[in-house]
Amino acid sequence: MTSTAFTLTPIGHISTPFPDKFGIPRQPRLAPHARGILRLDAPYARPEAVRGLDAFSHVWLSWVFHQTAGQWSPTVRPPRLGGNQRVGVFASRSPFRPNPLGLSLVELLDIDTRDGVALTFGGIDLVDGTPILDIKPYIPFVESQPQARGGFVDGPPAELPVIFAPAAELTLATLHSRHPELRELIREVLAQDPRPAYADDAQRQYGVRLYTLDVKWRCTEQGALVEEIIPA
């Protein structure tokens, strides 16, 4: 059979709170306050291209794992299996795929067509600047299958309690007017425990970058303790 190559052109690049891969929710909609704004590029930035989309509450985003393109493996170690057990790449959502294509179900929050087209989404799991290839409406009656088997990810992950130290609380107060959603975003991101599966140093301090902020935290017996929030 003759191999056929395809050329895919992004319709735009999405802006998100996640400048780095570390800390990004491992699935969409685990952090509802993680918002992304997609500004469509020409020639797609036309109001008629999104006509009727506001009738849908959720959409599928097709996108590119642009930071891992060209790197793939036939087997991977999913975090949900502790990072030790291998499964086939096609039984996972690993970014290390033969074709670096991603798919995310996100909430559509706003459509702004006053100057081009800007779409705001909630529950984003994408690094800042991710190329978006397509948008398709989510249709519940055909795409929601509650009886479907979930394999090794059958059920939501356990969540960590998140506690804010006094220094972090003070910074949150000063940033509230600029980032009113920041407390909930930090809580949602850290509740998923973004540490690598092999993490075993209880005293280690981790840093998650959100927007231009460096969130310093560590795990304690009480949960994830946010010690500092450092503006760039």
The domain tally reads: 2
β content, as a range? 25-35%
Q: What gyration radius follows from the Cα positions, in whole Å?
A: 19 Å
* CATH topology value of the largest domain: Elongation Factor Tu (Ef-tu), domain 3
Mean pLDDT: 93
> Can you tell me the residue ranges where pLDDT is under 50 for at least 5 consecutive residues?
none
Sheet bearing the most strands, described?
6 strands, antiparallel, barrel
| Run of helices and strands | EEEEEEEEHEHHEEE
Helix/strand structural class: mainly beta
Head-to-tail CA distance between termini: 53 Å
For this entry, what is the oligomeric state of its chains? single chain
At CATH level 2, the architecture of the largest domain is Beta Barrel
Number of beta strands: 12
Task: Specify the helix fraction band.
Answer: 10-25%
CATH classification, class level of the largest domain: Mainly Beta
Number of helices: 3
Strand order of the largest sheet: 1-2-7-6-3-8
Overall outline: globular
- Assigned CATH superfamily of the largest domain: YaeB-like
